[in-house]
């Protein structure tokens, strides 16, 4: 009999886990409550455009995410900078974080020497702190109890260095300011991204809407791999006489193993209470952190680069979304808004957005348009054709000191049940890379649990595991 695996949640973690289990030869059902796949990476139509719920970027070091893109046949749909290059502006100054073809950390030395927000002394102190951060033991449980902000102050980092450099990178990757971040997570990000391999932090982004990149391509790959995608909300996952039962509003499905790939609150609601060995209030204690995106369409080009970071401004990062959204640069008669030829669509990504997430659109407009004009002089004479806001209240967990003990591993106390999701114990912050890694770990758990039950024929070529072709797809009503 072919073992049956149920994967609950169709974000990047669930897609990854389902593909892995299907490739290993198991009969996989993936349950997703929404009508699309891709989870927190999705897009919605607005006139002629596809709007991403929020700008997503990845780094060259995100090797598991890149492997997923390969599996989905989507590698050509992303752009990866050949060399890290971040134009930075703010407070009347302009800088550039561009790497040299030198080994890390020397690759950033030239950029640092010319970085206009740091005095000569601050540059030296920055280098000393960066070298000390390289030596931080991220595996030591005590490291997770220390605030990154406290650690930076203890290593001579003043407000200017924190605002213009540490937080510039940290807010975007960790979705929190240094004072609110665990040293273990911050050190992981900086060690992997900036201090070890010179190419690791080259930035990548999608050239097409996320819905196509992950959701539609994910659906196609899952279907091709034999996964049954069921768009139903799972209401409970329970132990059954032999294996597990997965209940939805309409049906109960039998499974030999389950991967839960839903957000923390959903996992707590769905799974048996003894699945994770965590304090009762773990979901609230882990918490969540919002990301807000401010979308502005100008009637002309106001920014020449694909992205720009801001210092001392509400505009943390701004991205040119014109190509990726499908905005046509010629006249666009079908659009909800009249888009003039040569229009440009920018998205401002605001992470750790607690202060902004509840502000009315009109107020955000009053704050962000002048800030964009400060950063992008061409915006001062351009007309705003459209302005709207997307808010993700639970974009990531809060990577606060002490959060590591609230992130469970893939293996649970219950045989045959594994956890996935960017919030689980991946060692990474809540990112696409973390989600994919979690899906891989959960699939490995399930596959090892099912080792005694043979996968279906054909899997042998993909996984090295032998097995006859049998397919069970019963639905218990
Ligand atoms: C605005 C924004 C910007 C971001 N920017 C970046 C970035 O630049 N770089 C980066 O790497 N990461 C970024 N992230 C984080 C990244 O998107 C997430 O870490 C990742 O997508 C999480 O994937 P996941 O599969 O773990 O969870 P999710 O994407 O949350 O997937 C969980 C899925 O489970 C489904 N589900 C929930 N309950 C049920 C149920 N009962 N039954 C069935 N299905 C259910 C949900 O509908 C969802 O599809 C950003 C996130 C946001 C919101």
TrEMBL record:
Domain Amine oxidase: 12-447
InterPro entries: Amino_oxidase (IPR002937), FAD/NAD-bd_sf (IPR036188), Flavin_amine_oxidase (IPR001613), SQase_HpnE (IPR017830), Zeta_carotene_desat/Oxidored (IPR050464)
Cofactor: FAD
Region (Disordered): 457-477
GO molecular function: oxidoreductase activity
Protein transport is among the record's keywords: no
Keyword presence, Oxidoreductase: yes
SUPFAM superfamilies: FAD/NAD(P)-binding domain
Stated name of the protein: 15-cis-phytoene desaturase
Gene: pds_1
